Description:
Structural class: alpha/beta
Number of strands: 12
Strand content: 15-25%
CATH topology of the largest domain: Rossmann fold
Amino acid sequence: MATIHDVALKAGVSVTTVSRVMNNRGYISERTRSKVFQTMEELNYHPNEIARSLLRKRSNVIGLIIPAVSHPFFAELANHVEYYAYQSGCKVLLCNSQLDPVKEKEYIDMLKRNMVDGIVMGSHTLEVDAYRNLHSPIVTIDRRIDEDIPYISSDNYAGGRLAAELLISKGCRKIAHICGNLTLNLLANNRSMAFRDVMLEHGIENVVIQTDMNVFDHDQYGRIIGKLLREHEDIDGIFATSDIIAAYALKGCTQAGKRVPEDIRIIGYDGIGAVSWFEPEISSIRQPISEIGRLAVELIRKQRDGEPFERENILPVELMERSTT
Length: 325
């Protein structure tokens, strides 16, 4: 196997020059640069990335831990994190925890062994001590787990108010709210808090239904909505805390013979691209998913490079009204 010394000897340059070419440091003539790269190709030389990481004290790799890559919100988030990481010269290691604390801990250990520059935590498990004890750059999405760890969230309370007030303004007088399990310590719970506040302020009858602990188990959504429509036939509005739940609500209403939006109005949350695929198109509170991804990469970089950063990052949401309201 060829070494950096073999490359230097064959190219007729010093080892230092080869190192500078590989790391793009210092002035190197284009002729010398081309000669070094040509020699590396001829010798099939590949730098030892682990050794280079030790020398640079950085790997240019960011770990991203999410609960379910199949979920459209996290799929879009992963896409944006990867895009902005690549733009900044980094790669992404994607870890799909599937809400399994043991699996998530194994991923954390793997990322530590690979000396990643930082970890973006988008998981929803209750196990957070492993993150607190990392002693390396970390950013959490929609979770506040430590005074020193920066987090990113959309303005969930404002989003909840926008959704609830829209349904009321459309004449809804008995509104159901379908949300994730509120025992999970997530900032997304503020959507439900806002809903309850608005209902109380306006004296509107309402029903709040939580999913089980596995909030990404799509099979339960159909059962929840079917039971809701059977037990509360006079429901005329639904606020779902994800667009996926809203899509299931639309399907359930159609199966129950209810017209949307004539008989019942529906609004979701997230603003994923798929909401425009349905007929009627689903109204939603849009999170700035692209900006969340960009900011996550930036916060990792700032921590890595010792730059000042904001710990609390609350981003504005936007009401996207479509046909279901």
